[in-house]
């Protein structure tokens, strides 16, 4: 482990930018890598390197020249793979290839969690080599509604709810078209409020920092419309969530870094996972909401771990109620304008707001902007 303060950061977009800013605040010299497309990180970095982060050989050559103290990235599964490759070559502890593989493949993840005895819906793997008749034969014993999603994507891409058998063929084609490896997971749809549990791992020990209450457009595509921290859960349910999350993390052998599990709590109190990612939650969940609502320096923890150092669990601010709202239509846009006019002090920050259009909202990228609000926690 090198003692300098040169930190290699992979990714330049607005969701990586808070990491760049926090690293600079902590005294690191930020060397940011990414393809030159005019993203904000190209400007905020101390040194910007116009290099494709998926060119592993060139990335390792640059790393050897730079000799950084660590390599970090947040909120991106795409960047997670080259980050772990560099950390392994540098001798900095990180998750294994097996864990990386399981947490980026929803089917493998589901198999491992079921093997560990965690509650799970019925599920099956679907590939583009299967006929619709083969899929129907394997669905014997399943109950509608179902949900299908690519095994290898996030951000609601390729996700669709299937209410009856007549919708099956069209939904399969839609989801498989999105998958890069042409594989999807088809499973029984679970009713219940959706949450995520923002957590961190170090040497196989876990810490739940915050529980996020999530809101979506609902069926058929479940694009997220907003998040709230802390979630409105009883102390008893919070303890149950913590216990079940840690069992799930162990089933995937997660050892290091940020963890973003997404799950539902059913009406009868069961905790059913949708997926677990070994990265921060995107959409400002890890970078903004978690530090604001918990008081913990989540990005500082991730930087420490990616430099081979122990994370610091001291709180750096008083916890607050933090919410993010996504602008998806004219009503949302007017609501933002009203808050900005009448209660500007409650706005923590906001994105640039794109022009509205009449295109359907099928994935997170179709939203036109967001804003984050804060309030004191009620006593």
Summarize the structure.
This protein is an alpha+beta fold. It has an eight-stranded antiparallel beta sheet, sandwiched between helices. Helix content is 32%, strand content 26%.
Structural account:
The structure is a single chain. The protein has 379 residues and is α+β, with helices and mostly antiparallel strands. 32% of the residues lie in helices and 26% in strands. The protein has helices at 17-25, 41-44, 56-66, 77-90, 97-102, 106-115, 132-138, 168-178, 235-251, 285-294, 298-306, 330-342; strands spanning 6-10, 29-33, 47-49, 70-72, 123-127, 146-150, 160-162, 183-188, 193-202, 205-216, 224-229, 257-265, 271-277, 320-327, 347-350, 369-376. The strands form three sheets. The chain has an eight-stranded antiparallel sheet with strand order 13-12-9-10-11-14-16-15, sandwiched between helices. The protein has a four-stranded parallel sheet with strand order 3-2-1-4, with helices on both faces. It is globular.
